[in-house]
């Protein structure tokens, strides 16, 4: 009899695992059943802001592989079916068909993959569950938001939270002719950057006409007689809103795993080993937005939900459940995003993250241009670099600039992975030609300055 | 008395060395004399094609620091002065003032820096020294070429050689409304790439209206009665030309060093140690286009003249002559260039280079897009990857694509420096967001395919 694999969650991690396992083992050896609670599989949630903003025709364009395509590859995919219980002892899961009167049934497994994703943070405030308040974590979320936008006669939006999703959504709403207010608790928007770099993003948001309220503590979503959101209240003011978007981040969707006694980290994310096997379990794997990943620079696990990690997790899990061998070594914390023509990137640790794990460091910030200053359209590019005191080891890089700035962060991402010092980085043989870079790439200029700062700091 | 430093050559390596030394030691400790045979100092020769093509206002924009600026920093700079002899035994150089009736004089030194650069290859063919035949190695060369272009009534240009300088010059001449023919000995233009990748560049050149003649063996430059170039002859045909540009590469300008008995490599480039000190000499340093550099992937030194290396050499030399400490570890062979909107990049070894040093390897080529396929204006991007047989160590990457493709090569440049395997590269935490990259960066897609190829090749 074929071994039985059950996958919970039909997006990147789950379906990449299923697909990779199927590539390695045919249906005679491995029977694969996958459960997805929503209407879509294998999609790019990262594309939702561009769908909402009208840059991309959604949802079809955002789907890498449809349910039909998965089924054609002999994956028994149960759409609109929510798993409600894990019975690890007997090796079975209970699932409920959402469109079929809630009919429940048990499915047995030999091996289990948890890819249950994450859900937008909803602080327990009055009105937070009102109609017109939207997260943007799944394609179903995206569709619901677009339905609200289409139906709404008003054109005022409030985005709560100015992390990268909040900022991207704010821009998308501007493109839909909304007057947008972003309410954020921090000193500066773009909490994925240190405040000094976030200030540059703030300037770009103002340029788009986005009102950004900093140090804002949201106290309630106010509703109208029909229970629809009509405004967001903070400790200081009230902001009228025809639609409210939640951009306060997400938390791992691990209620099922918790109920089954599986190990969770501080964030609530599942803990796995390097093969993405749930710690202490022989036949349970987990990946994607529901797990914590090892941060190789910070030296601990944390919740860092990104599609690029989820896809890698899926590939690793698929190889391992099919009897192959692969590992996910961890992350260095790379992220890029865009506001208007401003490119925003970071990798490694921010200042507060470095301090939190006991690292002492120097920081430098340089201004350069993304290509030779004399070549047409040279635009400024700012690079901030953190290096460990004494050792000079690279700890993090943040970049804010225009075209050609964002992916520069990959240089630092690879250098972090390799454990390079900033002094080693000075001599990196990076691509140079006037349309691509100044003769000293801005990352190298930062490395030179950081090297000097490490020396100046002494022992 | 102050120590006496003499620098020969006023471009990147020489003046970076002088400037860095001056930063570390004042004129009371170190007297610096620098000789430059041309009219310019510290300029970007890489910018010449953009000056010729009208994208950049030359020569001023291409000059990082003028002679006056150097003199203001207490560097005794002798412009239009050619060093004609090195007397290493007595520690002095003989120099001739080119604009002063050829007056010669000796200058004593305690420490010497050779930064004599390179000169365009001119095979010993009839007519190769004719008027109207131009190299493009120095700003003086660039000015002479522009004078010829301005004076010429005709609009036909022949470029000999289709390396990156030849290709960039061909495009520049198209922008000046020249009908351009490129004659090249190879199978495909862009000899810095393998022929299969060079073919993609060939297509782009055709799109610009550039006629590219491959497997062309040039036999002579034909001249008119006044000794001006009028055509270029190959074994098969004659190509009329109002101007001829040499793009066959350069060779190190080391006649002085050779006459003084300094050690040269196979290319004629000076051999140095890791501190850029000329091998076997206590008080002589060399850097820039006149030296061979250690190719960390090939495991031997070779001539790889690039402004980015020259600047680094200068910084290292400046630190060392001033009693500091710095080393240049070597290069991995990174280069980027542009034809029209096509970005062309390589790092590490080509197939023939890998074979020449005894490496066995697998190659893969993938097609992807530079950003998410569904995001507007996604353009194709091709990545070729070489990995060592058995070990899977990365040996080289070549990229041809549009906007955002070229600098991707830096990922591979850092991975090469760190000695990563292609399997390690699969899990690199690179920046991902739809406007920047597909969820699997094209470099990672290539690494996946290369990993599979290494496994398939077995032991």
Tell me what you see in this structure.
The structure is a homodimer of 459-residue chains. The first copy, chain A, has 459 residues and is α/β, with parallel strands linked by helices. Chain A has three domains: 3-119 and 251-321, 3-Layer(bba) Sandwich (FAD/NAD(P)-binding domain), CATH 3.50.50; 122-248, FAD/NAD(P)-binding domain (3-Layer(bba) Sandwich), CATH 3.50.50.60; 335-457, 3-Layer(bba) Sandwich (FAD/NAD(P)-binding domain), CATH 3.50.50.60. Chain A has helices at 12-24, 48-52, 67-72, 139-151, 164-175, 195-207, 255-259, 307-321, 351-356, 409-417, 422-426, 442-457; strands at residues 3-8, 30-35, 75-78, 81-87, 92-97, 104-108, 111-114, 118-120, 133-134, 156-160, 179-183, 211-213, 218-223, 229-234, 238-240, 243-246, 250-252, 284-286, 293-295, 300-302, 335-339, 342-348, 361-369, 380-388, 394-401. Chain A has a five-stranded parallel beta sheet with strand order 3-2-1-7-18. A five-stranded parallel beta sheet of chain A has the order 9-16-10-11-12. In chain A, strands 21-22-25-24-23 form a five-stranded antiparallel beta sheet, with helices on both faces. In chain A, strand 1 (3-8), helix 1 (12-24) and strand 2 form a beta-alpha-beta unit. In chain A, helix 1 packs parallel to helix 8 (307-321). Chain A is globular. Chains A and B meet through helix 8, strand 21, strand 22 and helix 10 of A and helix 8, strand 21, strand 22 and helix 10 of B.
């Amino acid at each position: 009899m074929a071994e039985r694999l059950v996958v919970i969650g039909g997006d990147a991690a789950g379906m990449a695992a299923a697909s990779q396992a199927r590539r390695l083992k045919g249906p005679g050896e491995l029977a694969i059943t996958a459960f997805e609670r929503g209407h879509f599989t294998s999609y790019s949630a990262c594309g939702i802001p561009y769908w909402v903003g009208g840059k991309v025709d959604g949802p079809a364009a955002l789907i890498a592989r449809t349910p039909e395509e998965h089924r054609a590859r002999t994956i028994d995919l149960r759409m609109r079916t929510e798993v409600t219980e894990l019975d690890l002892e007997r090796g079975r899961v209970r699932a409920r068909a959402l469109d079929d009167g809630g009919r429940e049934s048990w499915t047995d497994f030999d091996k289990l993959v948890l890819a249950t994703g994450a859900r937008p943070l909803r602080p327990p405030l009055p009105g937070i569950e009102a109609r017109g308040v939207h997260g943007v974590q799944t394609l179903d979320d995206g569709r619901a938001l677009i339905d609200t936008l289409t139906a709404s006669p008003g054109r005022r939006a409030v985005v709560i939270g100015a992390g990268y999703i909040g900022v991207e959504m704010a821009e998308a709403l501007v493109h839909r002719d909304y007057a947008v207010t972003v309410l954020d608790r921090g000193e500066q928007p773009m909490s994925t950057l240190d405040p000094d770099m976030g200030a540059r993003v703030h300037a770009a948001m103002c340029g788009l006409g986005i009102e950004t309220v900093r140090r804002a503590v949201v106290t309630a979503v106010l509703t109208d007689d029909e229970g629809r959101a009509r405004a967001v209240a903070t400790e200081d003011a009230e902001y009228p809103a025809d639609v409210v978007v939640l951009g306060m981040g997400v938390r791992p969707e691990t209620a099922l795993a918790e109920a089954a006694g599986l190990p969770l980290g501080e964030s609530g994310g599942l803990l796995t080993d390097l093969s993405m096997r749930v710690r202490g379990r022989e036949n349970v794997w987990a990946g994607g937005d529901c797990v914590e990943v090892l941060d190789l620079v910070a030296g601990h696990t944390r919740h860092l939900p990104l599609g690029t990690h989820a896809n890698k997790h899926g590939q690793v899990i698929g190889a391992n459940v099919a009897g192959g061998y692969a590992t996910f070594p961890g992350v260095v914390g790379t992220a890029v995003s865009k506001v208007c023509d401003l490119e925003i990137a970071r990798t490694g640790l921010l200042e507060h993250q470095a301090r939190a794990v006991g690292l002492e460091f120097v920081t430098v910030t340089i201004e350069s241009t993304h290509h030779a200053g004399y070549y047409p359209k040279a635009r400024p590019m700012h690079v901030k670099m953190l290096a460990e005191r004494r050792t000079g080891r690279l700890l993090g890089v943040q970049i804010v600039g225009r075209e050609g700035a964002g992916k520069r962060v990959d240089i630092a991402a690879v250098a972090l992975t390799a454990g390079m010092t900033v002094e080693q980085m000075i001599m990196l043989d990076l691509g140079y030609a006037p349309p691509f870079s100044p003769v000293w790439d801005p990352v190298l200029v930062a490395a030179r300055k950081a090297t000097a700062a490490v020396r100046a700091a002494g022992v």
